[in-house]
Amino acid sequence: MSDETDSTRDYGEFVETLLTRQSSLSRRLQQVAQYLLNNPEDAAIFTIIEIARRAGVPPSAITRFAKELGFDGFAALQAMFKQRLLGPRMSYADRIQAVNRELSPPAKGSRPNDPHQVADTFIQAAFDALLRLREDVAKADLVPFVDALQSAKAVHIAAARGAFGVGSYTYYGLSRIGKRAFLVDNLGAMRAEQLAAMDQDDVLLVITFDDYTPETVDLARKAHASGRTVLAITDNELSPVAPLASHALYVKEGRLGHFRSQVPAMVLCQTLVMCLGYRNPETAPAH
What we know:
The protein is an alpha/beta fold. It contains 14 helices and 7 strands. 54% of the residues lie in helices and 9% in strands.
């Protein structure tokens, strides 16, 4: 293995490589990439068989992905994720291992009968996602994102399907602190008209996660093409809305089957709303 290939051992460079190579990867390998970016702790801890099971791909796809990205194989790829996990916040990684060993999945065709078991599984997934969010927020560019929201004449929020609850709360929160906000809800099938109502000084805040809602992605593309400012809250750098956004924040949601925990995204949006509120003396929360 050459020194040039060894440069991909840095996680940041690994993500940059993925961004440039994304279009050349097969759909299966893109599925692997999405899972690894959304679950980097799993990639550092689990066996290739377990990672493949969780990603919904055969183990051979993990190996192909590693070699496609310039690694000798899965072991070298996992070493890079292990290196990412090490550092001053290792205690969080330890805690993630301890609390996020989700209950063993039920046998195929069966369902858990104990509501407490279901609740415990979702609580652990949310806790895991919050620990990840705390790590990611420490490295995120929150200030420019808040600056863009503050300078906007109005904030138009596009969030649908699984992200609709988070988008609706964000609209409510911004309205409560006196920020002009509009929910692009497609009422009366007038999504295009709602987008056209955006002024040049407004911003479009898009909230979408894997599997990205096509209507939300389409709104982001049209807003970007018309010269409007787009802000994004999504899951990782490979998201289709990430390159359209002036600023993007990433949330790795806890996922259990077809369900995703909305807790981390809600916490991030509450953070943004509170930051704006503190900047406005008239709406700042009382100390």
